[in-house]
Amino acid sequence: MQYDEVTIEVDMTNMSVREQYGDNAKINLIFTGYLNGDKIDEMRSVKMLRKKGKWYIDKIVADPYAR
Predict the structure, then answer these.
(1) How high is the pLDDT of residue 17?
(2) What is the predicted pLDDT for the residue at 7?
(3) Cβ proximity of 17 and 27 under 8 Å
(4) Domain extents for the chain?
(5) Closest by Cα among 12, 28, 18 to 61
(6) pTM value?
(7) N or C of the chain: less Cβ packing under 10 Å?
(8) 58 with 45: CB under 8 angstroms?
(9) Strand segments (E) across 1-67
(10) Is residue 42 within 8 Å of 11, Cβ to Cβ?
(11) What are the 10-residue block averages of pLDDT along the chain, 67 residues in total?
């Protein structure tokens, strides 16, 4: 993903999309931005881990619909 300018938001359209189990969480992020003047919207799922009270990105889940 490449952008000249981007806004990142948590997808809150369906609360079941966000799952948290103890020190692990999976959330969907919506990326809205521009590249060379063209608007680009993408969504990615991110697996996160909590260590010592802070959340860290563990993995960006591959888009199953990407080519």
Answers:
(1) 45
(2) 95
(3) yes
(4) 5-54
(5) 28
(6) 0.69
(7) C
(8) no
(9) 5-10, 19-21, 24-35, 38-51, 54-60
(10) no
(11) 92 63 86 95 90 92 71
Cβ count near 20 (within 10 Å): 12
pLDDT at 26: 87
Locate 14 and state its tokens.
Answer: 């369906």
- Contact (Cβ atoms closer than 8 angstroms) between residue 25 and residue 54: no
The two structure tokens encoding residue 41: 């919207």
Both tokens of residue 67?
């080519």
Q: Which residue has the tokens 């809205």?
A: 32
Q: Which amino acid is residue 3, in one-letter code?
A: Y
> Residue 27 carries which side chain, given as an amino acid letter?
I
Q: Which residue has the tokens 């997808």?
A: 11
Place of tokens 């959330």: 27
Place of tokens 């010592």: 52
